[in-house]
Amino acid sequence: MKIYGIKNCNTVKKALDWLKENNVGFEFHDFKKEGVSLEKLQDWSSKVGYEKLLNKQGLTWKQLDAETKATIIGEKEALQLLSAKNSMIKRPVLEFENGLVLGFQEEMYQRLFLRH
Q1: Looking at the DSSP assignment, which residues form a beta bridge with residue 4?
Q2: Is residue 68 flagged as an active site residue?
Q3: pLDDT in tens, 16-28
Q4: Residue 64 exposed, middle or buried by CB count within 10 Å (0-12, 13-18, 19+)
Q5: Please, which domain of life does this record's source organism belong to (predicted)?
Q6: What's the whole-model pTM score?
Q7: CATH number for the 2-113 domain, one of 3.40.30.10, 3.90.1150.10, 3.40.50.1370, 1.20.1300.10?
């Protein structure tokens, strides 16, 4: 299992802390240090849709000029933008054998990893 994100993001920190506290093994991939390939973004988009990958609530999106935002008319443009500005990817991205989860919700992680 691999978790993608930015180390100083509070939501990513919460997810990493939860995984550690619950002894769930993972590999961490830091967007800022390692980037994310267009191929990986295309794979994720095929699973959850590019609309969910693009975090329009974040500061990076809000700081974009209107002209740039207007160019995001489909998957191709969105993924190119996410590739160039990976801090706009909804995070963390949890990639595992049976799927992909965006964001951190403790209840979801419990359902995935703590089968009582």
Answers
A1: 29, 93
A2: no
A3: 999 999 999 999 9
A4: middle
A5: Bacteria
A6: 0.90
A7: 3.40.30.10
